[in-house]
Specification:
single chain, mainly beta, 21 strands
């Protein structure tokens, strides 16, 4: 009988909730006004939020520590700005990674007048100081290429970051699977791993995970994953040593 690797499940229905008639934020970890003694950061990963914005509405975040922020639309598109001319719109089948020095003010806005949008924004503390203005790069992907495999979308160095910029302290992969399809993710020595189920259900290292559940794993060399429903979508974040 194989030994189960150490880990912690973050259940979807236990996420922090902040809601008005203009937005809803569900937070896997402590974030802003949403605080719980059981939702401390997982290493450098300190924010994983599902944000829903009403038409034309915007929300603003003050970045307290040098951070990398990943924006991934779930439905619709999201406009972002960080001041100093760094701005853009992230569409479907795109994600944007922002290197945001402490003191940056990040604004997320629904570019549509009468439609809801939803997105994930993921916050990882930098391991080296980030100097200069915020940098943003957008990665496009073809959803068909995610079928029944985990595809790396963000690696340790983004191609359009300047040579002086430090390497990213994480890798991000996405995969969409049909039921009973399996894969194995190889983890770099010393890394830890966080998986988040965007849609469907999975069994991951012996744990049953449903939509919007998260799983943190450490002291693990490889991770086995099996989809339990069709069109199940998973995000895997490897936090590098």
């Amino acid at each position: 009988m194989s030994k189960q690797v150490p880990g912690k499940i973050y259940l979807a229905d236990q996420r922090g909730l902040l809601e008005t008639n203009l937005f809803r934020r569900q937070s896997t970890f402590n974030f802003g006004a949403s605080q719980s003694e059981h939702k401390d950061p997982f290493g450098r990963l300190y924010g994983l939020n599902e944000e829903t914005l009403a038409g034309g509405h915007a929300v603003e975040f003050a970045v307290a520590a040098d951070s990398y922020i990943v924006l991934l639309p779930i439905t619709g598109a999201v406009a972002y700005s960080t001041g100093g001319g760094t701005r853009g719109t992230v569409e479907a089948e795109e994600l944007t990674t922002i290197a945001a020095p402490a003191g940056t003010v990040l604004t997320l806005r629904n570019p549509f007048g009468d439609e809801l949008i939803s997105l994930l924004h993921i916050w990882v503390r930098a391991t080296q100081p980030l100097v200069g203005p915020p940098l943003a790069t957008t990665t496009a992907f073809n959803g068909q290429l995610l079928e029944n495999q985990l595809r790396a979308l963000v690696s340790a160095r983004l191609p359009d970051y300047p040579p002086s910029a430090p390497d990213l302290p994480f890798r991000l992969s996405l995969g969409r699977f049909m039921g009973r399809q399996e894969t194995t993710y190889q983890v770099q020595p010393g890394s830890s791993l966080f998986a988040f189920i965007i849609a469907g259900a999975f069994e991951l290292e012996g744990r049953l995970l449903h939509e919007k559940d998260g799983l943190a794993l450490w002291n693990v060399a490889e991770v086995e994953l099996e989809a339990l429903s069709n069109h199940a979508l998973v995000l895997v974040l490897e936090l590098l040593p």
